[in-house]
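Order emerges. One example.
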Amino acid sequence: MSIGDHGVTVINRYIGSYTDLTYDLRINEVNPFVASLMEREIDDYWRWDAQYNYTYAWNNANLGSTRFTAGIIDLFDADVPVRETGSLDYDAQVHDGRGRRFYVRALWSF
């Protein structure tokens, strides 16, 4: 949504639950403790991102404009679904386990 030089964006990222296709291959290879933690179904996952933009038009038309952005990735610091895989406790091919992150950016267009 934009009003004048200001803009706000909110993004929801949803990954539905799914079956771990490696479960049957791994269940007989791990120790009994790890086997007790393993599950065939990986839970669904919701993540919310938000950002604010401000566009500044320079007084000199030759300089164009600059869009300043500040944002948060994974606004609510959602927990990724657990998948017992060894050193990581989540499916790194599907989920991003880095948690909440902040960023700023300036994009100069001329």
About this structure: Residues 66 and 108 are 4 Å apart (CA to CA).
